[in-house]
Automatic annotation (TrEMBL):
NCBIfam families xrefs: FlgEFG_subfam, flgG_G_neg
Flagellar hook protein FlgE/F/G-like D1 domain mapped to chain residues: 96-159
Phylogenetic classification of the source organism: Bacteria, Pseudomonadati, Pseudomonadota, Alphaproteobacteria, Hyphomicrobiales
Protein name per Swiss-Prot or TrEMBL: Flagellar basal-body rod protein FlgG
Name of the gene this protein is made from: flgG
Residue ranges of every copy of the Flagellar basal-body/hook protein C-terminal domain listed in the record: 216-261
Length: 264
């Protein structure tokens, strides 16, 4: 029966929906994580009787036709790129972005990745890197004799050299990137995204400039996942899956009854 196939598409859609929700919940404490939402569309319809079809020579017509749907399909698992809560860590190289923008990260293959995770450290050469050791662009190196490092809301990096009454010295400028369509970015893991044809090219600029947010030193952005919302969505997806499975069972019982009738 056609209903079994239709219900099966609903079960597959809700199975994927649960996978998306479970990934959101798993990343509840992932710095800078942006939650996903599954979006669905109905499949093609078979028209048994077309609306507006003539029913007589006097011009009468069908007010509503007969269309049989064939189920549902998943069209996207779009990222919700809203701001997450910002929490204090008191670490000099932890940075949170308040507003638009993403950090530019140089990956080992030479490509540029983009991240909201600002949990940075220094490598053996004093370069500012991610937790995976990827260089933060543009490259910023902190001298080994630096006694204090400050990063302004506008991204200016300064250090204080040793000595009596030393003056802060500029060492670099952190830059951000933003996109026309942030939801079009491709996730590659390690809290990184790469641009795609859908996202458009990166628009680069300094923190605090037009269209870009400010930086907060000693803070990190939390995931924008709401546990209550995700649990509610999980329950709804589970109920939808169960209802589709009942349709499969009912259709199977009806098919069995029809088969027995012909055998009898």
């Amino acid at each position: 029966m056609r209903a079994m196939h239709t219900a099966a598409t609903g079960m597959m859609a809700q199975e994927l929906n649960v996978q998306v929700i479970s990934n959101n919940i798993a990343n509840l404490r992932t710095t800078g994580y942006k939650r996903q939402q599954a979006h669905f569309q109905d499949l093609l319809y078979q028209t048994m009787r077309r609306s507006g079809a003539a029913t007589s020579d006097q011009g009468t017509m069908v007010p509503a036709g007969v269309e049989i749907g064939s189920g549902v399909k998943t069209v996207s698992t779009a990222r919700v790129m809203t701001q997450g809560n910002v929490t204090q860590t008191e670490k000099d190289y932890d940075l949170a972005i308040r507003g638009e923008g993403m950090f530019r990260i140089r990956m080992p293959d030479g490509r540029t990745g983009y991240a909201r995770d600002g949990g940075f450290n220094l490598d053996a050469q004093g370069q500012l890197v991610t937790k995976e050791g990827y260089l933060v662009e543009p490259g910023i190196t902190i001298p080994q004799n630096a006694t204090k490092v400050t990063i302004s809301p506008l991204g200016l990096v300064q250090y204080v050299p040793p000595g009596n009454n030393p003056q802060p010295t500029d060492v670099g400028q952190i830059q951000l990137a933003r996109f026309v369509n942030k939801a079009g970015l491709e996730s590659i893991g390690d809290n990184l995204f790469v641009e795609t044809a859908a996202s458009g090219p990166a628009i680069e600029g300094n923190p605090g400039s037009e269209g870009f947010g400010n930086l907060q030193q000693g803070f990190l952005e939390e995931a924008n996942v709401n546990a209550v919302t995700e649990i509610s969505s999980l329950i709804a997806a589970q109920r939808a899956y169960e209802m589709n499975s009942k349709v499969v069972t009912a259709a199977d019982q009806m098919l069995s009854a029809t088969t027995q009738m012909f055998r009898g």
